[in-house]
Specification:
Low-confidence stretches: 1-13, 147-173
Distance between the termini: 74 Å
Oligomer: single chain
Number of helices: 14
Largest sheet: 11 strands, mixed
Radius of gyration: 27 Å
Strand order of the largest sheet: 1-3-4-7-8-2-13-12-11-9-10
């Protein structure tokens, strides 16, 4: 290693530069913060320098990717027959520093790939955002929905219309990135602010994700001063009240110390259920969030073949029953299951069996949940918030009741009542209901089609029906809750509503004439076959999906009710 001073001879005309800053977990040496592939490199692809930034020692790692053909060169060759032979490389670097007791990494190019994942503190970006950003000046947000059908949304409003203009459901979604302006009443003593702070209408902009992107000083002591200021700001500033809910749910990093324990606990619960420690159930992977319901599941778990119209937790359990504890998790990851529609067409492709399983691990102070292969930590404030709204939703019941589930004809093959059989039976027992089960509306946003409802009920409310038991776990309800919300959000579009009216007209012309201009309400009708259905018997993420629907529908002035089918 060579030693170099950094930043002392930089020209004063360029005192700052926008950089990507990451906070790292404590380490005995700066080398421990670098990715293992770099430390174990034998091909000498990376250069290591021991450096000083001002008076602070640091570690600089740099490298360059192998030359690759520029991606548009083959098109030129195809069109003209001329091979230009152009290639390009990507130069990257990461600078590791310890400022007082805090470890930081500054990355350039693809230098973020040089950071050891298990040492990357992914809380840093959000901790800075909830203290510094103005809620009314959020310009971009990336979020993951917390449900058994996870999704990722990214929105941008160049004019800065405010955080809530994005329709953020802060209580039920995991925010991954926030970009916006620092609140006007906060003064951050950074080199860039000192340089530009006198400009009219100046506001510092931040991009907050796993780290923070912002202009920082490129002279040695200027950078160290900036990093100390950021350390103090994040440690001392109060979290903005309107942004506090964004910290209620956090995703555990892939290399988090708890991963092995949570994984083994989830597999233990799959093999031997124990309600005191948690619960496991079936959940839809992210690829299956949109589109119609799965009608047939095919694939394998270990050596056990899957070919069923009702995937249950026992299908996963049987596939690992003969495996050792060490092999069980590996078997779930390596096995695949695919969901098909009624015609046999794949709805989302083959997905790891682990991604069809959801789990909830109970801890005295929080909950850990497994969704789509990732673990999340839910804090106490989040849980209390969800409890309140779910209890209110269950208390709001319709004036009418649905027939008992077992009054419907039984399926000859399984000797049980399937949802399809029940939905077709209800209108024969009560002519106020119209069956629309499996009658899809296809739109530009939903080209595969979506179910508007299973039943059109009295007063033209949309009724979504689901059967649940200990076999499925209550995780399948998050699909139901998300499905109902998608239907209502889609039907508030006038063009989609017109198509819905025509769909109803095909079934019952007289009923179509009674429809207004938007949904009159949404009812989740649920039958639990093995024990009473109560708010506290739902998986936490199923409750989160219900909360998301409740808040969104209330904002749209569309009533939400829950009906428990006897």
């Amino acid at each position: 290693m060579t030693e170099h001073p950094i930043g002392e001879d930089e020209p004063n005309s360029f005192p700052t530069r926008k950089m990507s800053l990451y906070r790292m977990y404590p380490a005995d040496s700066l080398q421990e913060l670098a990715a293992l592939k770099i430390l174990e490199d034998t091909a000498e692809r990376f250069t290591h320098h021991e450096v000083r930034v001002g008076s602070t020692p640091g570690l600089l790692i740099s490298g360059e990717s192998p030359a690759e053909v520029v991606d548009w060169v083959p098109a030129i060759t195809s069109l003209t027959g001329v091979n230009l032979g152009f290639t390009s490389t990507t130069a990257s670097a990461a600078l590791f520093l310890k400022i007082d007791d805090v470890h930081y990494a500054l990355t350039f190019g693809h230098g973020w790939r040089y950071l050891r994942d298990s040492k990357l503190d992914r809380e840093f970006g959000l901790e800075a955002a909830v203290r510094l950003l103005d809620p009314d000046e959020i310009r971009r947000i990336t979020r993951w929905a917390l449900s058994a059908k996870a999704r990722v949304d990214q929105n941008m409003v160049p004019g800065g219309q405010g955080l809530w203009a994005f329709g953020l459901r802060e209580h039920a979604e995991l925010v991954r990135k926030l970009s916006g302006k620092v609140h006007g009443d906060i003064t951050v003593d950074l080199a860039y602010v000192r340089q530009c702070g006198s400009y009219r209408n100046f506001r510092l902009n931040l991009e907050c994700g796993d780290g923070v992107q912002l202009p920082l000083g490129i002279q040695g002591e200027s950078l160290i001063s900036d990093l100390r200021e950021l350390t103090q700001v994040v440690a001392q500033l109060k979290v903005r009240d309107r942004l506090e809910p964004l910290q209620w749910v956090r995703r555990l990093a892939p290399g988090h110390d708890l991963h092995d324990l949570l994984d083994s606990t989830a597999v233990d619960l799959l093999a031997q259920p124990d309600s005191d420690r948690g619960e496991v159930g079936i959940a839809y992977p992210a690829k299956y969030y949109d589109g119609p319901d799965v009608r047939v599941y095919r694939g394998h778990v270990g050596s056990v073949q899957i070919d069923t119209d009702d995937l249950g937790i026992d299908d996963l359990r049987m596939g690992i029953a003969s495996r050792t504890a060490v092999d069980q998790l590996r078997t779930l990851r390596a096995s695949t299951i695919e969901g098909l529609d009624e015609t046999g067409k794949s709805l989302g492709g083959s997905v790891s069996a682990l991604h069809w399983m959801a789990a909830e691990i109970i801890d005295p102070k929080c909950r850990y949940i497994l969704l789509d292969g990732d673990w999340y930590r839910l804090g106490d404030k989040y849980l209390r918030h969800v409890d309140r709204i779910v209890t209110e939703a269950f208390a709001n019941t319709p004036e009418w009741t649905l027939p008992a589930w077992n009054m419907a004809p039984r399926n000859a093959k399984t000797n049980s009542v399937h949802e399809r059989d029940y939905n077709e039976y209800v209108p024969t027992a009560d002519d106020r209901f119209l069956c629309l089960d499996r009658k899809l509306l296809r739109t530009r946003i939903h080209p595969q089609g979506f179910e508007t409802c299973d039943l059109l009920g009295p007063s033209n409310v949309l009724v979504h029906v689901k059967k649940v038991s200990s076999e499925t776990g209550s995780s399948v309800l998050s699909h139901l809750f998300a499905q109902g919300l998608v239907a209502v959000e889609s039907l508030t579009d006038p063009a989609t509503w017109t198509e819905f009216v025509e769909l109803v007209r095909e079934q019952d012309p007289a009923r179509a004439e009674t429809l207004g201009s938007r949904p009159e309400g949404l009812v989740y009708a649920i039958h639990r076959s093995d024990k009473p259905l109560l708010p506290n018997t739902l998986f936490t993420f199923a409750r989160s999906a219900l909360v998301s629907a409740a808040i969104s529908l209330t904002s749209a002035n569309i009533p939400l009710q829950v009906s428990v089918i006897p």
